[in-house]
Amino acid sequence: MNHNTYGIESNLKDLNQVYQSLSQVTAHMEHNTCGLEYLGLKNLGQVYRNLSVPQLIEKALARGEGILTTTGAISVQTGKYTGRSPADKFIVDESDTHDEVDWNSVNVPLAREKFDLLYKRMQAYVQGRDLFVFDGYVGADPQYRIGIRVINQVASQNLFAHQMFLRPSPEELVHHKPDLTIISVPGLQGDPDIDGINSEAFIVISFEKRLVLIGGSQYAGEIKKSAFSFMNYLMTKRNVLPMHCSANLDEKGNTALFFGLSGTGKTTLSADPNRYLIGDDEHGWSDRGIFNFEGGCYAKTIRLSQKNEPQIWDALRFGAMLENVVLNPETRVPDYDDGSLTENTRAAYPVNYIPNCVIPGLGGHPKTVIFLTADAFGVLPPIAKLTHRQAIYHFMSGYTSKLAGTERGVTTPQATFSSCFGQPFLPLSPTLYGQMLFDRLIEHDVTVYLINTGWTGGPYGVGTRIEIQQTRAMVSAALSGELNQVKFHHHPIFKILVPEAVPGVDSDILDPQKTWSDPNAYEQQAQALAKRFSENFQKFHQVPLDIIEAAPKVE
């Protein structure tokens, strides 16, 4: 034993290096207040940089920001803003990017002078206040990742940033340099008359300064989606397709992508016990393959069940943050069926809380792509195969239904078209993202399916929502290749290919018209949706004719 240290000396050496790195971080924090002076943030209170999860939870509890649940998760309420507020999002109109940005109803310009004034107000507001700083990364592929700095007035929001983005090692933290900075101060309310905004809330992104200002809203999703919007701008310049999708892979390493807006099942369906999760929401597709932008998941929890979503259920433990989930005041047991605060109840947790996750979040080029839509009209088949041109048509259309609570003011499902299944986060033209996806589908010979997780037997209010067990069976058949042996027929209106059978699925639901009591009523409703597709697509210009011809048939 005297001559064999069993690796102890090596371990002590490694620990000593870690402690030295941490000492450098501490010294940097003490003497330079994390270097926030370069942002004009001066005369601050205490600045906390990259606190651990227990420390952040302690701070949040001590400051009265939330309470603990029976599982150890911290539960917070976000007040008036329980979802994203698209009407309060702006992009600074700057000379370098003016001609690049696709200015529209979601990409609303804010004059640079107004941004500068708002920034000065924020700089004045934080004086004397404690701030929490998270320095980390966006992008699991080191070749494409960017440094991110998130500065928060609220400790629980900094916990969100810690869990949502990629966490640095102690050595990386010493040399960390932010490529994007997000400053979120919910206590600062904007003034529409002075700031040129629409309400007390504001989310303003400057691509030139690589800076995002958030105020008036404590909804943490604004932080996450601001970073995504920035990546949707930057990655295209690096020949990476940024995507609002989840991703997983099978035991053989075959990657699958799930596109879809919030509430369509993107997070739930990708968290599959039989597959390995890469990520639940935001990814890039480079010439090297797929990589996760994030280090965490942000799942809707309304009507969450241990039976249907066991992995998400088990992830809501110590370190997770719940937003607007109603708790029993005495037992602190969450009631996921209670939507009295909002239908958009949420949970943020690190991706490694899913037991079969992929660390780092990398995968090969996908074999299968799935578009998810929650059809409130109840006319789309529960599963259909798309040609590559149909895939781009449906990708650029981005049809789904906004589900209750995802955005403020949405209380019932509303049929909508969101380009690329993520229009609120796309600063550039959807045609650009569509072309990038088309090129990749062709190059890698990807199979594409459209899966309806919405209604069957009639529209919302008449029909019923397709059972998740049925949807899971269809997803499984699509990914396993079982549908390669099945016959398909063209839908007479939407022209997409509908399978005649799917293993483990009742064939009666595969033809949506047969699930309606009145076939003529189905025909009318399907034609009405086809017309909406056609009218929506007219806004796109310079789209190849063969993509336009993939549209549904309108009589």
- As for the number of domains, it is 2
Number of helices: 14
Architecture (CATH level 2) name of the largest domain: Alpha-Beta Complex
Compute the number of strand runs: 30
Cα radius of gyration in angstroms? 24 Å
Look at the helices and sheets and give the structural class: alpha/beta
Give the CATH topology of the largest domain.
Answer: Phosphoenolpyruvate Carboxykinase, domain 3
CATH class of the largest domain: Alpha Beta
Taking all residues together, what is the mean pLDDT?
92
3D shape: globular
Proportion of helical residues: 25-40%
**Proportion of beta-strand residues:** 15-25%
- Uncertain runs: 1-13, 18-31
Largest sheet: 9 strands, mixed
Distance between the termini: 87 Å
What do these coordinates show?
- The structure is a single chain.
- A hairpin with a 4-residue loop joins strand 9 (202-206) and strand 10 (211-215).
- The termini are far apart.
- The chain has 2 domains: 29-50 and 84-238, 3-Layer(aba) Sandwich (Phosphoenolpyruvate Carboxykinase, domain 1); 241-300 and 359-548, Phosphoenolpyruvate Carboxykinase, domain 3.
- It is an alpha/beta fold and 555 residues long.
- Helix 2 (53-62) runs antiparallel to helix 4 and helix 10 runs antiparallel to helix 11.
- It has 14 helices and 30 strands.
- Strands 11, 12, 13, 14, 15, 21, 22, 23 and 26 form a 9-stranded mixed beta sheet that branches.
- The longest helix has 25 residues, at 8-32.
- Helices cover 28% and strands 23% of the residues.
- Mean pLDDT is 92; it is low at 1-13 and 18-31.
- It is globular, with a radius of gyration of 24 Å.
